[in-house]
Amino acid sequence: MATKTAAQRREEAKLEYDAFMAGCPSRQLLDRISDKWVGLVLAAMADRPRRYGELSKEVAGVSPKMLTQTLRSLERDGLVARYVTAEVPVRVDYELTDLGHSLMPLMRAIKSWAEAHMDDVHVARSEYDRTTASA
Amino acid sequence: MATKTAAQRREEAKLEYDAFMAGCPSRQLLDRISDKWVGLVLAAMADRPRRYGELSKEVAGVSPKMLTQTLRSLERDGLVARYVTAEVPVRVDYELTDLGHSLMPLMRAIKSWAEAHMDDVHVARSEYDRTTASA
DNA sequence: CCGTATCCACAATGATACTG
DNA sequence: CAGTATCATTGTGGATACGG
């Protein structure tokens, strides 16, 4: 039996990692809510349903591609519901589901921690940058 | 005065977006904690300080480049402290700061929501995929 | 009006060899 | 032991023209 190559060892390690984390629900949740546009989209329809065009304006700077992609993944995860009304032209509304609403306290918790501690973080950064300054 | 081009309008929109979100602390916090390795690294030293080599093994699959990069950003943000002991060979320990520890309840909250609701998410995904199935 | 299709740019991640 | 330097690769997001 030949000695394992670095690549092989790394592959095994990777499997362990996957076994430990890939299945961890917190990882998937973080990946979802930390998406660049998710927070803005959810916030935009927190209080009432919104049409696609409304979201497009309210979430300023988002391209149609990203807006649709964001809405689709939120819909797939059951956080947002999509309603199509067959008018001419067609009308589409999006709104938070109960599951989507249940996520809001968590978002608020994140906001709270950040508001309470981001000053410390910024001070730490300044100190680190000052101390580490090279030239 | 010429009509604004699409690019110009988009640029203005982008600035509005930046003004609204770039300064939002929750955005920065999410970006930090949702990093691929941050969760694992923080978890690895949650109960006691760890040496670089220990982290390298415990956080299986991480390359030295990413481990160092992760540790540096956590150190810069004041979530982790780095201690160098001048032995031969050199010894370096990392541990959570008070600020780092204060983040743990939030991580647990995320984990809790995920554990409580990821089943719903998975059901929603299955339903969505089933309904949307094309070929 | 509500998206989809396409192409492009760039940042993020990874493997790995090498240095203090 | 504890990283750093380099190169290759991939994923992610953006602009925009066009279709239902």
From TrEMBL, chains A, B:
Keywords: DNA-binding, Transcription, Transcription regulation. The keyword DNA-binding applies. Pfam families: HxlR (PF01638). One of its GO terms (molecular function) is DNA binding. The keyword DNA-binding applies. It comes from the Bacteria. Residues 24-122 form the HTH hxlR-type domain. SUPFAM superfamilies: Winged helix' DNA-binding domain. This is Helix-turn-helix transcriptional regulator. The lineage of its organism: Bacteria, Bacillati, Actinomycetota, Actinomycetes, Mycobacteriales.
